[in-house]
Amino acid sequence: MDWFKSKKREEELQQLMLDQQRLRNELLMKELEEAKKNDSDEYDEEDDWLNDDDCCNDDDDDDEDYVPYTKPYMHLKMVNDILTVVLQDGNIVTKPNATQEDYKAVTLATSEAQIFNIVMSQDVKAEKDKRDADIERVKALFEGMELLNKFSDFNVIGNSIYLKGISRSLPQLLVEEFILILQ
Length: 183
Prior knowledge:
single chain, elongated, two-stranded antiparallel ribbon, 3 domains, alpha+beta, 6 helices, 3-stranded antiparallel β-sheet
């Protein structure tokens, strides 16, 4: 039972270290803003050695655009070898057979897409890539059908392509070859 407690403590320590670094960064930003503000209050026109159009003059509009860092997840837990991530929108993503490297990679992730890439298994990732490739191929095929329809030698009826004078539809492989030649 001690190993479980030590693992849990290690995870909590990592989370505390990340939160501590984030707070340090925010504190540093506030100190820099205060220092900049104090410097602008003590500004004397006689000591002006910078031009008005100098690149180093900052506008105070940056304060409105500042957005503090937020994690792409609300909660992160690793129990035994199952990594569970609760995203900001409330969705829950799990990864069985996870490692400490997976846990650390999720803690360092800056977007949900990075988390999905870490959590997704290689089989699912390969299947998703294959599905995306098939979708792209079908889109290209439909665009090619529109291209073939512009030529008087072809008739497009529904999802089939016919050569003029032939009542049999062309096989997909032949259609793809015609599209490659005409592009």
